[in-house]
């Protein structure tokens, strides 16, 4: 039992490290690609966002296909049951996905105009706004450590802005 807990703890830290590496490299790569001084036109941010979403859809379809024993019939059945037969549920996802698409386009604009460090720290304000909305709108309580973490986050954002 102790070795399972130890392995889970190691996996947690490895996952956190990979997430930090992925997020940091994504921001730096996006910033570099948006601020190149080469001749010729830059790529459109909206094109990058659309292709990212298409890749996500393809990966999801492949994973659902694999989960159903690589059966096209099983894949078609799941897609029909979850998307076609539930049009209201699918429509409910249209608003958040539209806002998400707008957000991703604005991220490219922000990275084109801000340095990477300012962008990265300011982008973390989404954690604060999410917490405040969950407290005010969803009546969810936050613990002392969570409030302390939000205060430290705010101080970090303020220091970077100064």
Would you give an account of this structure?
This protein has 162 residues and is mainly α. The protein is 82% helix and 0% strand. It has 8 helices and no strands. Helix 2 (45-67) packs across helix 5, helix 6 (116-123) runs antiparallel to helix 8 (144-161) and helix 7 (125-136) crosses helix 8 (144-161). It starts with a helix and ends with a helix. 1% of the residues are buried. The mean pLDDT is 85. The chain crosses the membrane at residues 12-32, 44-65, 142-160. Its main location: Golgi. GO terms for molecular function: pyrimidine nucleotide-sugar transmembrane transporter activity. InterPro entries: EmrE-like (IPR037185), Nuc_sug_transpt (IPR007271). Keywords: Membrane, Sugar transport, Transmembrane, Transmembrane helix, Transport.
Q: What is the topology?
A:
Elements: H1 2-34, H2 45-67, H3 72-84, H4 87-92, H5 94-113, H6 116-123, H7 125-136, H8 144-161
Helix pairs in contact: 2-5, 6-8, 7-8
**Oligomerization:** single chain
Shape: globular
Major sheet details: none
Structural class by secondary-structure content: mainly alpha
Low-confidence blocks of residues: none
Main location: Golgi
Keywords: Membrane, Sugar transport, Transmembrane, Transmembrane helix, Transport
GO cellular component, one term: Golgi membrane
Transmembrane segments: 12-32, 44-65, 142-160
């Amino acid at each position: 039992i102790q070795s399972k807990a130890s392995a889970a703890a190691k996996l947690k830290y490895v996952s956190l490290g990979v997430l930090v590496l992925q997020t940091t490299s994504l921001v730096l790569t996006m910033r570099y690609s948006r601020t190149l001084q080469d001749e010729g036109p830059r790529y459109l941010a909206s094109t990058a966002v659309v292709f990212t979403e298409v890749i996500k859809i393809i990966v999801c379809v492949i994973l659902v296909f694999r989960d159903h024993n690589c059966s096209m019939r099983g894949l078609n059945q799941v897609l029909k049951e979850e998307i076609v037969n539930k049009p209201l549920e699918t429509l409910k996802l249209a608003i958040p996905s539209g806002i998400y698409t707008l957000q991703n386009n604005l991220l490219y604009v922000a990275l084109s105009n801000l340095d990477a460090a300012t962008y990265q720290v300011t982008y973390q304000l989404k954690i604060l706004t999410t917490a405040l909305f969950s407290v005010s709108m969803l009546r969810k309580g936050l613990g002392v450590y969570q409030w302390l973490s939000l205060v430290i986050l705010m101080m970090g954002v303020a220091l970077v802005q100064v």
